Amino acid sequence: MTNMSLLLLLVVVAVSLAAAPTTAFYLPGVAPIDYQPGDPVALKVVNVDSVRTQMPLEYYHLPFCKNSEVVETTENLGEVLAGDNIESSDYELRMKHMDSCKVLCRRQYTREELKLFADRIEEEYFVNWIVDNMPAASRYYSEDEDGTISTTYLKGFPLGFVGSREIPGSAPGVKYINNHARIVLFYHKHTPSASSWGADPQPGQDTRKPGYRIVGFEVEAYSVRHEIIGEWAGKDTRFETCNSPITNGLPPQPVSGPETATEAQREIVWTYDVKWESSPIKWASRWDVYLKMTNAKIHWFSILNSFIIVVFLTAMVALIMVKTLRRDFSIYNALAQDAESSVAQEAEETGWKLVSREVFRPPRHGGLLSVFVGSGVQLWVMTALTIVFAMLGFLSPSSRGSLLVAILTLFVLTGSFSGYVATTLYRSFQMTRWKRNALFTALMFPGACFTVFFGLDLALWAESSSAAVPFSTLVGLQLLWFGIATPLVYFGALLASRKPAWEPPYRTNAIPRIVPDQPWYLNGPFTVFAGGVLPFGAVFVELFFIMTSVWMHRFYYAFGFLFLVLVILMATCAEISIVLTYFQLCAEDYHWWWRSFLTSGASAVFLFLYSVMYFFTRLEITEFVPTMLYFGYMGIVTFAFFLLTGSIGFIATSMFVRKIYTSIKVD
Fold first, then answer.
1. Model confidence over 324-381: pLDDT tens digits?
2. DSSP one-letter string for 516-553
3. Contacts with 441 (C-beta within 8 Å, 6 or more apart), sequence order
4. Assuming Cys at both sites, which of 153, 431, 591, 604 could form a disulfide with 642, CB separation 3.0 to 4.6 Å?
5. How far apart are CA 553 and CA 157, in angstroms?
6. pTM of the full predicted structure?
């Protein structure tokens, strides 16, 4: 099973490296829609969110225009967990039909309603729409060091802005709402044929009739205080402010300050433009602009830096295995042939062979260690499979919520791995209550996650956030946990219980050997600290991009790089644990079980410290609930990283220790 998994991973790496790194290669999640000129195109609203609060709100939680009945779109589990709430809107779009300054609605607001807008603008909320499953994006330009202009796309568009002296026509501190949207839609002309991707044409169908596919969706948001020409005439109303294309130079629409004192000043007219542009981008590549890899050189530098660390550790392991251990084997095996020789007597006095009768003594709290290792293996299998599926395109952003669904599903289905590994290790410690240990394995990590998640969900409910998971969904998650995941853990434990327990090659002494005083550099805290630095150093650059994607609400699709980082992380955790455990055994300290787990698992401590630094240097979160959300979720991630890296180091070290002690002869 392990060899087949490694073979699959190597094949996927080869495929990913052969592909261009900036191309969004994925299997289609939905079929393309061919529109004809004049066909209606639905614009749906999702939510409003902010990187400052990390609490998305339902779109109609704010008093936007709502002229007709709102229709909700059926959502999958991933969309519910992500806080997406897709609903209909009153925006009218038709394929290739241009509109200019079209009226959405005119609404009279109360002071309380305007305050809702003003508070969300101050918190830098963005509005999220979708058209044909494409998210609305704002285009930004930046100048690189070499003077070239690069284009960046951010999801959504700003709800409004706070006035300042740098913004013409605005008053400092006053909040202004973006009440005019220029909707820019890009289309690609497609001529269907029998060889086209999709269903074959029906008999008699005209395959020469072209269709138009939407391949881009941008929104330019403006704040403008409309001036009506004459009387209000509904959607036929004419505006002085619309005689020319709306720009940022027009007087903006305030939602706070003295200009909203009277009832007439609290009236807002919502308008929008619709612009269609032809694009050479094909439908299968329409996500490329969103997923375009920025800072690719930094990714490669991170990979190179991590690779150097792995080469260094590999050289050390090779030195131990080839030179040092070979010399040790020749010396120790000479004991059985010439017990009176000076070489044998010298070898008896020092070295890792002296603890051969102690090295397999079961550790304290061995049951907890087995649970940690089993849960870590489950997380590793889940992570590897998720990255592989993402690289193959099954988890493309075009399939909304698919990534969260895949993570949850794979974690549930890989429960048998944790049960099998935990029970195998538990029984090797000469313990017999494996059923209780299997139950603890099924409850430990999911229980910790659910407890934190439920506490955070209560806080989101109190804040009326759309990210608050409904009670029915929580019940469904518990059914997955107890109805599927827990039985699978027991199934893996049952398979392990039917196999003979592993027996150590030597009988353990009845009285434990006294561990001699250790030099300062081999003390537990120092070696654990030193061992955690290198695995974290191998991943921290890629970690920055992942955290930026999650907490800054940006797209992340560099799964090829992420897979390479995972492979390097595995090698680093395994090798640093092996090296430090060998030095520990040479110093006649046989308490290696927990030390090997904590050595690589300590990288999670650096991850959490890095998340603290990221919070204070990159984010602008000031309120209590968003702060609790950040550290709650990062606490879950840290715990999972601790289990994953610790289990890798422990398993590699365990194989190393068993190998070297079965290669020598002991009287």
1. 666 666 666 665 555 545 444 444 445 677 777 788 888 999 999 999 999 999 999 9
2. PPPPGGGSHHHHHHHHHHHHHHHHHHHHHHHHHHHHTT
3. 370, 371, 374, 375, 418, 419, 422, 489, 493
4. 604
5. 12
6. 0.84
